[in-house]
């Protein structure tokens, strides 16, 4: 198999193939989110808040592996747009908790649809069965490397 510009030997490397798919996925997801004026970090934070409920900014950053200063900027963006709200933590008044607002919930539903469209575009050449198999295999590889990673 020869593809213009890429050496044939690269096409034999699963790591190279995965990175090429990831680049396309990032592009498609980025374009979908940009239609709402948001980026992947924004979406990631909204999803985590929807899944786990209100939490401290620090805990959210740790869970999502987002640097402190980046997390401040992301939360500022989302708060400015009315998608999240900061409120004092009743257990520790020095700390803020971040919660999803009703506007954030509506935005997340819109974003979920855009993300689904991006996934469909990315995996367009695959059947539903092949998509499920790819997801299963990728999940297995990710879980393996997370379980063997050094803390």
Please tell me about this protein's structure:
Strands 1-3-2 form a three-stranded antiparallel sheet. The relative contact order is 0.11. The chain has a domain at 32-121: Orthogonal Bundle (Arc Repressor Mutant, subunit A), CATH 1.10.10. The mean pLDDT is 92. It contains six helices and three strands, in the order H-H-E-H-H-E-E-H-H. Helices cover 64% and strands 8% of the residues. It is mainly α. The chain has helices spanning 14-34, 40-52, 57-64, 68-80, 102-122, 128-148; strands spanning 55-56, 84-88, 96-100. It starts with 13 loop residues before the first helix and ends with a helix.
Helices and strands in order, then pairings?
Layout: H1 14-34, H2 40-52, E1 55-56, H3 57-64, H4 68-80, E2 84-88, E3 96-100, H5 102-122, H6 128-148
Helix pairs in contact: 1-5, 2-5, 3-4
Short summary:
The protein is mostly helical and 151 residues long.
Task: Report the uncertain regions.
Answer: none
The fraction of residues assigned to DSSP E strands is: 5-15%
Structural class per helix/strand content?
mainly alpha
**Which sequence of SSEs, written as H and E, runs from N to C?**
HHEHHEEHH
CATH topology of the domain at 32-121: Arc Repressor Mutant, subunit A
Helix content: 55-70%
Write down how many β-strands occur, each being a DSSP E stretch of 2 or more residues: 3
Integer-rounded radius of gyration: 19 Å
Q: Strand order, biggest sheet? A: 1-3-2
CATH superfamily of the domain at 32-121: Winged helix-like DNA-binding domain superfamily/Winged helix DNA-binding domain
CATH architecture of the domain at 32-121: Orthogonal Bundle
What form results from the Cα inertia axes? globular
In whole angstroms, the N-to-C terminal distance is 40 Å
- CATH class term of the domain at 32-121: Mainly Alpha
Per DSSP, the total helix count is 6
Overall pLDDT confidence: 92
Q: Report the biggest beta sheet as strand number plus sense, adding barrel if it closes.
A: 3 strands, antiparallel
């Amino acid at each position: 198999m020869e593809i213009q510009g890429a050496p044939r030997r690269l096409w034999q490397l699963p790591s190279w193939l995965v990175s090429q798919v990831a680049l396309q996925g990032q592009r498609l997801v980025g374009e979908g989110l940009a239609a709402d004026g948001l980026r992947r970090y924004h979406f990631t934070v909204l999803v985590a808040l929807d899944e786990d409920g209100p939490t401290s900014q620090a805990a959210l950053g740790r869970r999502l592996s987002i640097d402190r200063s980046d997390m401040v900027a992301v939360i500022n963006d989302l708060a400015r747009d009315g998608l999240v709200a900061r409120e004092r933590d009743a257990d520790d008044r020095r700390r803020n908790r971040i919660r999803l607002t009703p506007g954030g919930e509506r935005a997340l539903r819109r974003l979920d649809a855009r993300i689904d469209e991006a996934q469909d575009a990315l995996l367009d050449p695959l059947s539903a069965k092949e998509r499920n198999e790819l997801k299963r295999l990728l999940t297995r590889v990710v879980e393996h490397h997370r379980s063997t990673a050094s803390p």
